[in-house]
Amino acid sequence: MTLDKTIERLSCDRPQTGMLVAGVDEAGRGPIAGPVVAAAVLRAGNDIPDGIADSKTLSRNQRELLYGRILDAFACSVAFVDVATIDRTNILSASMLAMRIAVEQLRPIPDLVLVDGAHVPPGLPVPGHAMVRGDARHQSIGAASILAKVVRDRYMQSLSLEFPQYGWERNAGYPTGFHLTALKESGVTRHHRRTFRPVAEALSRKDRPVG
After folding, report:
1. How confident is the model over 3-17, as pLDDT tens digits?
2. Single pTM value for the model
3. How many C-beta atoms lie closer than 10 Å to residue 202's C-beta?
């Protein structure tokens, strides 16, 4: 049996295999502001909510509805990696770090981790396997994608109370037209990623940081 086939069986049927299989995903690689957030989830019961899928295919209301149900059905862990770390390393490394921390914090400790994407974070405390489009193929990864997305969106909503001109409660820090216009007009904040092109260009125009 191939590794992928074995993982398909393990990830769907813990009672039969006796293995604890966690799913890991992140949210926030594309924005120009805010942290990257990762979630690790581990099935904790038999009542898995319907509708779990790649968070990008769901509406905000659907994600919010599933959020509480996921917390009831899975053991969960969430990790943030801040803008300073993103700028000091790069967004891929920061995403890998966030996922590794989320796995390290997860309890109980899983036997295997399924990671969305093409890379396994270095330094995982347990074996990991990368799954391209895993958030659409495995419930645990899909649940992690929803959890990470909702937590990050809520965090960006909280930041928008201090910096309402950027529309972060709507765009979550992504470079929408509204956000880019606000960046030109109001300048760069401490929550912007200075190594990302639109922010770097704003800084080159000597726009003064808001704070």
Report:
1. 444 444 444 434 345
2. 0.88
3. 21
